[in-house]
Amino acid sequence: MVKKGRKPTTGRKTTKLDIFEDPIKLKGRVLTLMRADFKKSPMYAAAKKSSFLGQAMYQCPLCMVMVYTGASDKNYEKLKLEHPKLQRGKESKMFNLDHIEPIVPYDRATKDMSLDELAPRVYCHEDNMQYICKECHKIKSAHESGLRKEERKKKKEKK
Ligand SMILES: [Zn+2]
Predict the structure, then answer these.
(1) For residue 25, is it within any domain?
(2) How far away, in angstroms, is 89 Cα from ligand 1 center?
(3) What is the pLDDT of residue 13?
(4) Domain assignment of residue 80, yes or no
(5) Residue 12 in this model has a pLDDT that exceeds 60
(6) How far apart are the CA of 61 and the centre of ligand 1, in A?
(7) pLDDT at 88 > cutoff 90
């Protein structure tokens, strides 16, 4: 039976208790928790604030795109006169917080790192954080997965 009008609260529901059999799955869950908890930290807030322009506007420090995240049509129209390229959208849909130096280094894999190693990389200093637009985040992520692929290739060749 399909329940209507109710969304699951989390997409990562564990139906099987596979965390007992698979320590990598357990690590993945803890890592997800740490990432969520980091969002409540002062470091996260500070990084977000550095992209905040005031009046519900954020600017991506990489591509300089400006987004009005407020609900007021009137304010948006007014701000658009000053900033003709101003876009509009929900903050959570338009921006991502990014670890400049990624949590998992390019030449490592999550499965080969301990939680002791991962924790301080999640809870990093605000200097390592940037609040960037989704487009820039996508580009950076694609670039990073390219680097990871190269590293894996290098390792294979060494063997
Ligand atoms: Zn951007």
Answers:
(1) yes
(2) 14
(3) 59
(4) yes
(5) no
(6) 7
(7) yes
Query: How many whole angstroms from 9 Cα to the centroid of ligand 1?
Result: 29
Ligand 1 center to residue 156 CA distance, Å? 34
Range of the domain at 87: 20-158
88: tokens are 């509009």
Residue 2 covered by a domain: no
98: in domain: yes
Beta bridge partners of 66: 59
What are residue 14's phi and psi, to 5 degrees?
A: -95, 115
- How many structural domains compose the chain? 1
State the distance from the centre of ligand 1 to the C-alpha of 72, rounded, in angstroms.
23
**Ligand 1 mean position to 128 CA, how many Å?**
17
What the block records as the tokens of 151 is: 């590293």
| Confidence at 21, pLDDT banded by 50, 70, 90 | confident
Residues 6+ apart with CB under 8 A from 115: 27, 30, 31
